[in-house]
Write a structure and sequence with these properties.
Elements: E1 12-15, H1 23-27, H2 32-35, E2 39-43, E3 46-50, E4 59-64, H3 67-77, E5 87-91, E6 97-103, E7 109-110, H4 113-119, E8 134-135
Antiparallel strand pairs: 1-2, 2-3, 4-6, 5-6, 7-8
């Protein structure tokens, strides 16, 4: 009989948004009212921001290296407002990983960088994504 092992649920910590490593990036680019509802999620050592959908922001996403982490992040976000239609997707570009998405479904490809920025409610600042058709699994999509 094969050995059965249990999967340990990863330790996830919810923190105030200003404690997120990427808070300044979003503070300069996202509507302040939406940002005030954001949640810093610490997986392992680095807290990253989960910014809810709302106002000018149609959707959001949070990357995870494993399915166990993606499931834990989804479970953490579920009771909070602004994270509707939580789902986990698999992205295979540029490297394989899971992504927790919420809000409207992003298009399979973006017409240009401005369309992507508008979907995520981002204004100003720079993005590392190319301006030609960008995959919705692009790491630059927050």
């Amino acid at each position: 009989m094969p050995l059965l092992t249990s999967v340990t649920k990863p330790a996830i910590t919810v923190m105030p948004p200003a404690e997120a490593y990427d808070y300044d990036y979003f503070r300069n680019r996202v509507d302040a009212e939406v940002l005030s509802q954001a949640i810093a999620i610490r997986v392992f050592r680095i807290p990253l921001l989960a910014v809810p959908a709302g106002r000018t922001r149609r959707g959001g996403r949070f990357g995870a290296d494993t399915l166990a982490i993606a499931l834990a992040v989804r479970d953490v976000l579920e009771p909070f407002c602004g994270f509707p239609d939580l789902r986990i997707i698999w992205c295979d570009a540029p490297h394989s990983s899971y992504v927790v998405e919420w809000g409207d479904h992003p298009p399979a490809t973006w017409a240009d960088e401005q369309e992507r920025l508008a979907f995520y409610g981002l204004v100003g600042g720079r993005s590392c994504a190319p301006s030609s058709a960008v995959s919705s699994c692009s790491p630059a999509a927050p």
